[in-house]
Amino acid sequence: MAIINDTTLRDGEQTPYVAFNTKEKLQIAQLLYEAGADELEVGIPAMGKKEQDDLKEILALNLPIQIMSWNRATLSDLDESLKCGLKAVDLSIPVSDILIDVKFNGDKNRLLKELEKVVIQAKKENLFVCIGGEDSSRANLDFLKEIMTLGKELGANRFRYCDTVGILTPNTTYENIKNLSSANLLDIEMHTHNDFGMATANAIAGYEAGAKSANTTVIGIGERAGNASFEQVLMSLVRLLGVKKEINSNALKSLIKTVSSASNRRVDANLPIIGKNIFCHESGIHVNGMMKSKTAYEPFNPDVVGLKREFPIGKHSGSSTLIYHLQLLGIEPNIQIVQKILPKVREIVTNRKKVLSTKELKELYLCSLDI
């Protein structure tokens, strides 16, 4: 079992300068479900009436997946979630000494008593309860086990291991999650941040070590450097870990476009999984290989994520690229002419720093025939 609990509509919207309106939230929720998310974390009811109204509208979509809210582990926050009609909650507590000092003046007993009180109430309401361990990656593992033991005794369902400041490496992630999951206390959910560029890698390492779930955000938006990317985690589960999931390429493409527009964040051309240039092959050696086998230099076909393969005519192009494009234009090229114009192609591209169009290639080739 490998669950994706996407938090684009909660942690993703906490990205500085990002704010989704109600229409955008509904579109994103629907598309996340269609694209393969198993659960959604959709907001913070304690923010007030507008946030609660949006949560109610998302619930009214009646998506056949679990919808969760984020809460501080307080009775007042829990009550706001109950008012919305939510059936699943994340109850967040600080678990590192650093944040326990900041938020509870170092009083772990008070923290545990408050958590106990809120979990008991949540279970009385028959809610799915995830205990969110804020700053787990800087916490003592024995203390995390103490919290998970308490959670299990109270009927909690999951523990969220949060790399709140993004300091984990995949190896450390694996060791820590293996340690915790081996205790057989609560199912573990990964919540990873990208401060050192390892959020997705750490999420996958968590799955490999026994975590059952991971939080993601579309195109990796989120506080500071962002979170583990939904599309990267989804494709890694399917293609690298062998998880049985259908990839809806149309929904994924629409989801990326919607979130990119709503968050005013561009999708870089070389962004893993969905960047438009990651299926562009310019190197002559690579193009030659791709002509012989479409798996030569690609881990999966571009149509899986709604993209197309391209062979730009650039500085590093070889004869195979020119022949490919000329044939598409209905020309059966003379190999000697192709080899003759290849240096000219490279010179033009280098000088103007822009690839040749197929029209320009055709003109260059035909002109060379007359010489």
Give a verbal description of the structure.
This protein is an alpha/beta fold and 371 residues long. The chain has 14 helices and eight strands. An eight-stranded parallel barrel has the order 1-2-3-4-5-6-7-8, surrounded by eight helices. Helix 13 crosses helix 14. The longest helix is centred in the last third of the chain and has 18 residues. It is elongated and about 90 Å long. The N and C termini lie far apart (66 Å). 43% of the residues are buried. The model has no long low-confidence stretch (mean pLDDT 96).
Helix and strand layout, with pairings?
Blueprint: E1 3-6, H1 22-35, E2 39-41, H2 49-60, E3 66-72, H3 75-84, E4 88-94, H4 97-104, H5 108-124, E5 128-134, H6 141-154, E6 158-163, H7 170-181, E7 187-192, H8 199-209, E8 213-216, H9 230-239, H10 249-263, H11 284-292, H12 319-328, H13 335-352, H14 358-370
Parallel strand pairs: 1-2, 1-8, 2-3, 3-4, 4-5, 5-6, 6-7, 7-8
Helix pairs in contact: 1-10, 2-3, 5-6, 7-8, 13-14
Number of helices: 14
Written as H for each helix and E for each strand, in order along the chain, the element string is EHEHEHEHHEHEHEHEHHHHHH
Q: If you compute it from the alpha carbons, what radius of gyration comes out, rounded to the nearest whole angstrom?
A: 25 Å
Please report the total strand number as a whole number. 8
Contiguous low-pLDDT stretches (5 residues minimum) are: none
Share of residues in helices: 40-55%
If you average the pLDDT, what whole number results? Answer: 96
The proportion of strand residues reads 5-15%
Q: How far apart, in Å, are the first and last alpha carbons?
A: 66 Å
- Identify the overall geometry: elongated
